[in-house]
Amino acid sequence: MQKTSISGTKCPEFDCSDVVPELPSESLKTQLEELAKIRLEGAKGTPYLLSAQICLAIRREQEFPALKLLGEQSKWPSTIDFKSLSDRVFFGLRQALNGMLQNHIILGCSTSWTSFSSMLTMANTSLVQFSQARDSTKFTIAGKNKHAG
Amino acid sequence: MGEFIILATLSRMYKDILLTLVSLASTLRDLSETETAESELGDSYCRFWNGAEFGTSPIRPRDFFEYILLPETAALLISQDLHISKAEAYGNWVRSKGYGDAFNSSTDDGMIDDLNNENLKAQVVFLRLFFISN
Fold first, then answer.
1. Please, which of A92, A137, A149, B115 could form a disulfide with B104 given CB 3.0 to 4.6 Å?
2. Is the CB of B73 inside 8 Å of chain A's CB atoms?
3. Is this complex scored with an ipTM above 0.85?
4. What's the CA gap between A12 and A58, in Å, rounded?
């Protein structure tokens, strides 16, 4: 079967004018193929969830070239040795991290603490309120740390 | 994916939650005393410490790991890899979130599951020892 190019295809959401980037990821390709298959089978309309997921993925992947350039300019590694990461933290950073947990001067002077406390202060939220808040509120106040690559 | 690995490793390093809570409560009490003494009564920084009670940690260890120790660990690792200061490394970590999310966020190779299993085993061993000694 002849493969057709999907780059340049319009986003399936009816009110979105975005187009599929030149080099879409494998997951986006799979989602688009899945949608095309559903349409070929004659299903009416567009599966709402799949269509919304594709729209989000297109928007996200449009930023890839700019992010790649930023990474190259900042000399960020394109691949990370994740296998050695756990040992590097467990054996190599234990002393520094213990200091954060046990010494208020080390903790108070650290960039991560000062940034965190500034974010909470700006949001007029106390440490106790933050701790008792829902995850979504914490995310709004202090940003995304998990799943940041 | 790096953040998941760091968090899983921190959970393994500080598996004694009780001890961690005691350390955290004591360190944060000292820090709040120092910081509130330096700020004007009622200013925004005083409000930051509102509600903190003596003997208990105003923040849960899970949140402390995620919002303070995790960024610190990431900054230390970046600082080692790129041979830059920790403050610069922290800036790099903040700026590179989108980049990492786009190019290094795959979690489907089983590495996270392996780490979680390792943590679970360590936790079971720790709890057994705890109950035997008590």
1. A149
2. yes
3. no
4. 10
